[in-house]
Write a structure and sequence with these properties.
Strand order of the largest sheet: 1-2-3-4-5
Strand content: 5-15%
Distance between the termini: 30 Å
Length: 151
């Protein structure tokens, strides 16, 4: 089984989704809301095959933040609540629009703000890197969702 590895910045966004309680797990599926609650993404799984109708999963076939958030809640990926607390309330949709979906720029701005506020960014970076390595080791696969991304 294989997955297309996402940009590492999607892990930061997944942390926000979980800590902001925007992930509603149900039996075999989850609903994940965007940071401004204007969109709801459907993540489904059966055995180790995951689908999601977020843009990254649907159009690029990589793990988008909704699937990563679900995997964290299923304890298939690490989730450090203390680190996640820093990502509470981040307006990802607004920032992604502002920086034209240049995710590395968005995360750079967020991390610079954290550093100004005395947050240990090295600890965050180490945890994010750990999760990224776990993603590379996952034994799941993804397939295109039958439902298109919400507009």
């Amino acid at each position: 089984m294989s997955i297309k590895i996402p940009p590492i910045e999607k892990i930061h966004e997944a942390y926000s989704a979980v800590v902001d309680e925007r992930v509603e797990l149900r039996d075999g599926e989850a609903e994940v809301s965007s940071s401004d609650f204007t969109k709801k993404y459907l993540v489904t799984w059966k055995d180790d095959v995951y689908t999601s109708n977020d843009n990254a999963s649907y159009w690029q076939g990589s793990l988008g933040y909704p699937i990563i958030a679900v995997l964290m809640m299923q304890e298939k990926l690490s989730f450090d609540r203390q680190i996640a607390e820093h990502f509470k309330g981040i307006p990802w949709k607004e920032l992604n629009t502002k920086y034209k979906n240049k995710y590395s720029e968005v995360v750079k701005q967020i991390m610079e703000e954290f550093a100004k506020n005395g947050v240990d960014c090295n600890k965050i970076d180490a945890e994010i890197q750990k999760v990224y390595e776990e993603i590379k080791q996952l034994t799941i696969s993804t397939k295109r969702s039958s439902s298109r991304p919400p507009k």
